[in-house]
Amino acid sequence: MRVPVTLSTSLCVVLLVFAGVVTCSPVERNPRRRSQSKSLCAQLIQPSGYPCSEHSVQTKDGYVLALQRVSAHTGGDIKAIPGPPILLQHGLFQGGDTWFVNSKEQSLGFILADHGFDVWVGNVRGTHWSHGHISFSEKDKEFWDWSWQELALYDLAEMITYVYSITNSKIFYVGHSQGTIMALAAFTHPYIVEMVEAAALLCPISYLGRVSSQFVLRMVNLHLDQVLLAMGVHQLNFRSDIGVQLLDSVCDGHMDCSNLLSAITGKNCCFNESRVDFYLEYEPHPSSSKNLNHLFQMIRKGTFAKYDYGWWGNLKQYGRHQPPAFDLRRIPKSLPLWMGYGGNDALADLKDVKQTLKELQSEPELLYLDHYGHIDFILSVTAREEVYNNLIGFFRSSGMFST
Q: Which terms does the UniProt entry file under GO BP (predicted)?
């Protein structure tokens, strides 16, 4: 039996791991799908009345990434922004648009600009807003040969370096979900963390061994990540028929997918369902099958480590039989950290978060909301009052902010 048509859609699969969209309509035929030929600034940020400029950065392995720079809608020159730079990093199957698709009053990107921050928006390789590769086409399997490991050590490293060099200032950092995995891995490298003043992590993830999401666990047990790689499916684009087929195979006769959102992310208290059609105009973004495979390796093993290529592959890649772990104790105690997490999050499980906290040298400032789920931290109708005011207060306590 197939899932109902309102659920049998590629976009629903976006919620597999760390996604932030709740919708289930046939998006590949959505006539309102935003044009990929226009920039994020032109499509979403400038029409909302905010000055925005586009920037590009090239990674060491040849990917060309897009960054957007946003300031408050005061009519002033973007180069004269008084506030400190802050980099926003989206989660899996998302792009920089995720920080602006809620209402202007509730979208963190707009809120930070209104508070005087010099807002920079990251877009990792493979997303619609980034610009490809200097050698490979998106049709080449080599283009998709990466996981969050490369996103952390290449994409995030280059984006931080670029913002640091342009602004001549240490930066603040905000990541959600996969954006926190990238940050925690990157911050174990001194040359990266030296450019960061402080970091806020929404739904922080380094360990995934205690994920309770029914839907994700079923996919892990079915080894669907390995099946995709064996089939030669290197790009995970959930606007294709493969996403629908994947959803059907997980749900069909085995679990109740009538409430797919709760089955995947846990119960979200305050998701803004009135804007679902608008979210669909921008998301989901593609990722790689290898990335999903790496995340599922973490769930199976309970480790926070580099990609596992197998016994011989690891020996060739790392000079050892097991992939090296990312040692959270290498993140300097001097780096101020803030973490927001929720009691209903089935992806960033409380026990996994506590394991992360136990291994860190520092004691991060914590915001725990018992009623919040994984999506609430970026798309809640109450996030400004319950999350962002606290987050902004953390950054303002830094000596970088003169007001």
A: lipid catabolic process
3-state DSSP assignment of residue 173: strand
Nearest Cα residue to 246 out of 217, 213, 224, 261: 224
**Catalytic residue check, 345:** yes
Phi, psi values for residue 395, rounded to 5°: -70, -40
C-alpha to C-alpha distance for 263 and 215, rounded to whole angstroms: 6
Q: What is the set of domains in the chain, with CATH numbers?
A: 35-206+289-396 (3.40.50.1820)
Confidence of residue 200 (pLDDT cuts 50, 70, 90): very high
CB 291 within 8 A of CB 233: no
Question: Token digits for 160?
Answer: 């931080």
Whether 362 sits among the annotated catalytic residues: the reply is: no
Query: Any catalytic annotation for residue 374?
Result: yes
Q: Collapse the DSSP code of 321 into the 3-class scheme (helix H, G, I; strand E, B; otherwise coil) and give the result.
A: coil
Looking at 97, 155, 308, 345, which residue is catalytic? 345
CA distances to 41, 44, 217, 363, 390 from 354, in Å = 38, 37, 21, 11, 20
Phi, psi of 365 (to 5 degrees): -70, 135
Q: Of 107, 130, 177, 206, which one is the catalytic site residue?
A: 177
Q: Are strands 118-122 and 196-202 parallel, antiparallel or unpaired?
A: unpaired
Catalytic residue chosen out of the listed positions 115, 285, 294, 374 = 374
What average pLDDT does the chain have?
A: 86
Q: What is the DSSP letter of 138?
A: T
CB 47 within 8 A of CB 296: no
Measured CA distances, 387 to 75, 111, 120, 160, 206 (Å): 28, 12, 20, 24, 21
String of DSSP letters for 194-212: TTEEEEEEES--S--TT--
- Is residue 125 within 8 Å of residue 63, measured between CB atoms? yes
* pTM exceeds cut of 0.85: yes
